Amino acid sequence: MLYFKSHIRRFVTSESGTFTVEALFWFALMILITGIIVDTSNTFYSYSYVNRSIHDGDRKMSIGIFKTAAETEAYIESQIQDVYPAADATVQIDGNMVVTTVDIPWTSLRMMGILANSQSAPVTFTASHRLEWMP
């Protein structure tokens, strides 16, 4: 019985193997942080990609390549449809300004899904550009 108690006492007081348990916690935390970084980076890339497409379409309307808002909407949606098929572009002519709004569902912007539950409303991109010609 004394032999059994000494083994139990040695097992309870032993600290060998504690690094493995701590490493598992750190590994899970690093995976979570990496996922957040990837999702955030993808969101910033998406902003740049959509913003570039909006400005390209607005500029083409501004210099007269596109004559109507419908042409500009179709162009912008065609630019981003490969990456964001659910995107919806709206182009309005307000005086001598072209105002473009693109709505993209938040779920389309995520890559790993870490930030999936943080937003449920669509992400809205808005840009305006001065017309150099009048329709």
The biggest beta sheet reads: 3 strands, antiparallel
Q: Kindly report how far apart the N and C termini lie.
A: 98 Å
Mean of residue pLDDT values: 83
The radius of gyration over CA amounts to 27 Å
Describe the structure.
The mean pLDDT is 83. 54% of the residues lie in helices and 17% in strands. It has four helices and three strands. A three-stranded antiparallel beta sheet has the order 1-2-3. The protein has one domain (20-130). The protein has helices at 2-13, 18-62, 69-80, 106-109, and strands spanning 88-94, 97-104, 123-130. With 135 residues, the protein is an alpha+beta fold.
List the helices and strands and how they pair.
Layout: H1 2-13, H2 18-62, H3 69-80, E1 88-94, E2 97-104, H4 106-109, E3 123-130
State the gist of this model.
With 135 residues, this protein is α+β, with helices and mostly antiparallel strands. The protein has one domain. The chain is 54% helix and 17% strand.
